[in-house]
Amino acid sequence: MARKIRMGMVGGGRGAFIGGVHRIAAAIDGEIDLVCGAFSSTPEKSKASGEDLMLDPARCYADFKEMIQKEKRRKDKIDAISIVTPNHMHFAPAKMALENGFHVICDKPVTFTLSEAKKLKDIVEKTGLTFALTHNYTGYPMVKQARAMIKAGAIGNIRKVVVEYPQGWLSFPEEQKGTNKQAEWRTDPKRSGIAGAVGDIGTHAENLAEYITGLQITEVCADVSRVVEGRLLDDDANVLLHFDNGARGVLMCSQISNGEQNGLNIRVFGELGSLHWHQETPQYLKHKSIDGQRIFEPGVGELYPAAQVSSRIPFGHPEGYLEAFANIYKNFARTVRKRMNGETPSEFDLDFPTIDDGIRGMQFVETVIASGKSSSKWVKFKG
Amino acid sequence: MARKIRMGMVGGGRGAFIGGVHRIAAAIDGEIDLVCGAFSSTPEKSKASGEDLMLDPARCYADFKEMIQKEKRRKDKIDAISIVTPNHMHFAPAKMALENGFHVICDKPVTFTLSEAKKLKDIVEKTGLTFALTHNYTGYPMVKQARAMIKAGAIGNIRKVVVEYPQGWLSFPEEQKGTNKQAEWRTDPKRSGIAGAVGDIGTHAENLAEYITGLQITEVCADVSRVVEGRLLDDDANVLLHFDNGARGVLMCSQISNGEQNGLNIRVFGELGSLHWHQETPQYLKHKSIDGQRIFEPGVGELYPAAQVSSRIPFGHPEGYLEAFANIYKNFARTVRKRMNGETPSEFDLDFPTIDDGIRGMQFVETVIASGKSSSKWVKFKG
Amino acid sequence: MARKIRMGMVGGGRGAFIGGVHRIAAAIDGEIDLVCGAFSSTPEKSKASGEDLMLDPARCYADFKEMIQKEKRRKDKIDAISIVTPNHMHFAPAKMALENGFHVICDKPVTFTLSEAKKLKDIVEKTGLTFALTHNYTGYPMVKQARAMIKAGAIGNIRKVVVEYPQGWLSFPEEQKGTNKQAEWRTDPKRSGIAGAVGDIGTHAENLAEYITGLQITEVCADVSRVVEGRLLDDDANVLLHFDNGARGVLMCSQISNGEQNGLNIRVFGELGSLHWHQETPQYLKHKSIDGQRIFEPGVGELYPAAQVSSRIPFGHPEGYLEAFANIYKNFARTVRKRMNGETPSEFDLDFPTIDDGIRGMQFVETVIASGKSSSKWVKFKG
Amino acid sequence: MARKIRMGMVGGGRGAFIGGVHRIAAAIDGEIDLVCGAFSSTPEKSKASGEDLMLDPARCYADFKEMIQKEKRRKDKIDAISIVTPNHMHFAPAKMALENGFHVICDKPVTFTLSEAKKLKDIVEKTGLTFALTHNYTGYPMVKQARAMIKAGAIGNIRKVVVEYPQGWLSFPEEQKGTNKQAEWRTDPKRSGIAGAVGDIGTHAENLAEYITGLQITEVCADVSRVVEGRLLDDDANVLLHFDNGARGVLMCSQISNGEQNGLNIRVFGELGSLHWHQETPQYLKHKSIDGQRIFEPGVGELYPAAQVSSRIPFGHPEGYLEAFANIYKNFARTVRKRMNGETPSEFDLDFPTIDDGIRGMQFVETVIASGKSSSKWVKFKG
């Protein structure tokens, strides 16, 4: 008989943001039990965080090493771990988990450097375990509909892609106020790596564009800025794009677009029409052409199967960010369960970002940052 | 130490719709464990449904009576039951659960008749247990913001309320096709009671209007129709309203508004301004006045505490229907837990619909249906 | 060779609002020359107003009688007059103009009473001249598209109509401040007649609903209010409607919907789908059904001819209220010109409201006001 | 006493598009009389076009030279000419008109080359006559409100500007079909100059950005494309921008964005907030910041005078493209009239684009086209 996937979490203790999102996403579909964790940098805080979550105190560990070692020996041991720490703390727990037989689902960007990402890929391949990366925006049903429509030729050959992720939350020097942990690590090269906005949200934009279009960026021309005085990493970037089919594009990401929230937005223009999607009203996918405008919504009319299986409720009842995020966890859980049972996951089960998306993301970061410093117009996307 | 609330479910087996919604709503915040259920009308189907949910087969019961009796004797017995059956099956399990010491959370409308609702109120009061009714739309953060703004006088004395719930899913005789269980029971007087659209969604509109404004409807003038030929219950109603402060209003509910999904919409006009909210884009609350239009959103600017505590994620990441529904479950769980621990629930914990809302709803149904048949202009709201 | 229609204006002097709108509407298409006027209640003010408009001082008359008498004797005399005075001043100049051989275009509501309207119809018929009524909202291209779609069966048999015209400009007792002429006459029974909001904007809603659907209202049940203390005429009404094909509906009009501007909005639900149009973004017509939502816009895709001929510029360049108003003037001018030349106007030339629309409007006013005072539920629409 | 400005038109005959727009724009406010023209390239077509417009046949001239020479000798001669020919035909009539004492209002881009534009500036300065350029989008009231807000510091120091003008009408090779005159000359280097989309609509985007922000672009990095096979001029461009205050930006213009109409859109991000405006719903100006979102509309709340004087009708009745265009004509007419009368035009009268805007536009065209061909990252804006 089927059973829920048992999961442990690394990071996500008191005061963290993204850990709570992962927990809800894992809980929504009732396919995963969060049973243990190493939630914080100190054993005490980790225990207290686990207590908040009403977990068994014996399974609230001091750190990920203890968690992996002790869980490994339990009869009811976990199947998978979820990594929700800052970027510089992804690689070590991911590596150890995989090498000890645990499947891994990890926040993005996948690692601190491109070189770490490549090493991780070797480990994933060697162990044969499942590795999922939470580029959560690809979990939205209408994103999947867009992708399926493009694949089916609904807008013809793609000519132009405009993707942007404006935020405004770092319009002021939040990281210098001493009260915003999130702002502190996001702007700290030691924890975030070489990029700020480009790494945190530029990668989401890049991933979304490549997921929806099926194209790959081949070269970029980037104008990368640190707008807020004293900030150590970029907080705004405007990037011209060239794609492998000859299409052109623009990618913008910003943390200083005051008044914007999470305005991830994509427009794909093909020969025959265009598709428009905005993360803040994710239930609508606009299809425009010379013949007019049609709006696609979950549950309405004929949708492609990949979109259909990503909704939980009938039309007109909006699902949101957490449900999109949950689609990554649901597909991860189903893939892990089937693989543990010797079954073959379906194409829908496998519809989640992998280590390859992680490597693309790190390549994007390194290429854009390099272009930002270059006086050459175009910089090739690193292979 | 705190522990999760253990819950059993009545109804919601294979092929049902609302049961799945309740399960997700209960799971989201990690405060409730669904541990058992009597999911269907036959023991076999009930077991199979429990298996789908990966529950302990020993706790997948043949019917609610067996569930209540057997759970009562377990050491790890449930604390509460969730009732998600059609309307005519609410009263019996609710009564038995309460009388056996279990808290109850129940789908709406609360019972089959007003008289049942009143009996249930007596039982709730006698047992002193917690009873929640899932008028889920009041769980949206911006609904709570609207309510708090009105209470604080932001739009002054209320003059007019326009509330509507148009759906289009019964534009055709779905119930006569033999393939739509939902359509069948919703249009069947034996399972739904005296009202169709009025009972199913008119009550949501009524509850929302009274929740947001703090007013009570005192009399109605209703035009109630059965539009689709052969249908046994109303599928459209237009209702003029009078409120206890002298305000006027209009309530519309419809299942034959072809092209509409779940267009629950409310506009409240006060002396000083107005508030506008639409369920399909629930993250926006518009405040309009002679000075212009301002849009309130979760996490942006200064919101009232009741709105703040109802969001889980920062601005710009939309939460939806399931999270609003989960707010009812979360508050129910917290109230139950505190009461079990001898603590006093906060005003925020207690922010969920109760048996009194259930009685208002049944009064609304009976009054509107009576008005629809009456040639008198105004019919008093039944006390 | 064709020449422009020469027109005189009655009313619309300094401080008036709607006169200026008529002048722009008449000017836009270059088919009408405004050459004279009797703009105000005093000769001096009338002259001064004409001077503001850079008209020949010799043709700025003291009152409409002088204008009609003197123009009649000129070689280059006017062809038509435009009446833009308050309601109680429509009948006399219209009668005199027609009886002296001038075509008439008149602001709505057509007259002060239903009985006047019927007399005017007799005069129009007797003289055989052209009479147009400026129910300007039917001039919008997408309104015409909606009408044509319904006529062609795009949404099947009509089941429900929701039409509303909320305004907020009389939320406070503007008419008691002594500074708002518009508010004064609109709320003065001596100048506006028996109705306030119902007459001023309720008639627009009624006209729009009947124009788009091709149906006629047969009976109403109205809740008519005077919300602002001391006001002499209604400022809010909610009305249940029955139509001649059995369809039901709701009509709302309000001047105390604080925060609303000119929110004229109509939704028509048919068996097969629905149409949605909002005056404040008039370039969009939404067609919704079970298959999804399509948005019609001027110039995009295949539109019906009546919509096509009502736009002046290519898609994506919004036309607005003045252009819709101008469509009434343009069609009036073309009809007048063709009739003067002995030609037959086309169906598109004749697409403007006539004295019959005026009579329907006055019937609507009298019926709704009567229903508001009645304790009977339904009041038949007066014949 | 004041009189209307008498105007002649060059271009805009049968089959042309923009001429009709200019005529409506000139007519709307009743301040200008179109009395003559040289509408087409052949005398016959010019006459016929004038007849369509119901003008005096004696004043329908064979070409602009005849018009200027003959009008000059009339007692009731024109005051000004309007030039609405393709780009390569702007300079000659503008020069001759100015040198013969006529004021000029001219479609954009001002001339065929930057060098012509500079010569024209000399002539304007030498003659002391009024020259207006119809960058019509700056005529929208909410554009003027945005400009005034920025000037007053409402969003603080500007950090980022995103301006775009996507169209889709040239998604297919329209110019090769032999039926689309507009497409033919717009894509013909002999009539449009060195740029296609960049000249036609890129200049609108540039002008709008500089008008609203008060900043100047200092250098660009452009990716300029010819997407449709066989096309002779660019039909898409993505441009990175640097402004004189250090702000960064992106400008996109496109004629192959299939499904787009005239999606001119600007977002200006300042330290304290941002402003968002979209040409297709021009009545809304969104002001967003950390405190929330407010929507400005004509006639609502407190607006800056420049916005107030640009609306003709009360709030909620949308004005559109033609009224914005008319604001240019109205201000031009008032300036001309005052100057003819020896009066001083007000700052509002003078609020129209001039020869200086024309020169900026030609500089923009030359710089962007040069950058598109350059392998250097940044190209300085030509002085």
From TrEMBL, chains A, B, C, D:
A Pfam family per the record: GFO_IDH_MocA_C3
Coiled-coil region: none
Domain Gfo/Idh/MocA-like oxidoreductase N-terminal per the UniProt entry, residue ranges: 5-134
Residues annotated as domain GFO/IDH/MocA-like oxidoreductase: 143-275
UniProt-listed InterPro entries: Gfo/Idh/MocA-like_OxRdtase_N, Gfo/Idh/MocA_oxidoreduct, GFO_IDH_MocA-like_dom, NAD(P)-bd_dom_sf
Origin superkingdom: Bacteria
This protein's name: Oxidoreductase domain protein
